[in-house]
């Protein structure tokens, strides 16, 4: 647990909440589970748009996770809210459009919670979007090392 005795809330965000943010959510949950740190985290994902509200994870994301034996559960895409912003410790975005849309939806990031996914591996580019590329392998190759680096960062920061 953190010093405050409450779990660290990590929220992954992408445009529709069916491809990238869900992949990151389940990859990160798997890493946390393997590290036996589940009690230290709340992990979820949301969208900046309303386009996919209610839809489950994209079949391409499920196929990639299945191939890697990364567990996932049925879910429904949902749009981020101000309550999500307030409860999250880290909001991990996939691209700069997500940042602009979050600011439009929620106002400025005055609490400095928003971080770009690839920043945890020292990159400034966007996570490749399989909605447009159809390549879920490339997306995973962006997300997996970033999730590992994020977990390492949090373990050090919170002495987990």
Order of helices and strands: EHEHHEHEHH
Q: Can you give the mean pLDDT?
A: 96
The low-confidence runs, each spanning 5 or more residues with pLDDT under 50, are none
Give the biggest beta sheet.
Answer: 4 strands, parallel
- Class by helix and strand content? alpha/beta
CATH superfamily, called what? Response regulator
Give Rg in angstroms.
14 Å
Number of domains: 1
| Percent of residues in β-strands | 5-15%
* Percent range of helical residues: 40-55%
Say how many strands there are: 4
- Count of discrete alpha- or pi-helical segments spanning 4 or more residues: 6
Specify the CATH class: Alpha Beta
GO molecular function, one term: protein tyrosine phosphatase activity
Family: Belongs to the low molecular weight phosphotyrosine protein phosphatase family.
Active site: 14 (nucleophile), 20, 129 (proton donor)
Domain Phosphotyrosine protein phosphatase I: 8-153
How would you describe what is shown here?
There is one protein chain. The protein is an alpha/beta fold and about 160 residues long. It has one domain: Response regulator (Rossmann fold, 3-Layer(aba) Sandwich), CATH 3.40.50. It is built from six helices and four strands; from the N terminus they run E-H-E-H-H-E-H-E-H-H. It has a four-stranded parallel β-sheet. Strand 3, helix 4 and strand 4 form a beta-alpha-beta unit. Helix 1 packs across helix 6. The chain is globular. The mean pLDDT is about 95. GO terms for molecular function: protein tyrosine phosphatase activity. It comes from Veillonella criceti. Its EC number is 3.1.3.48.
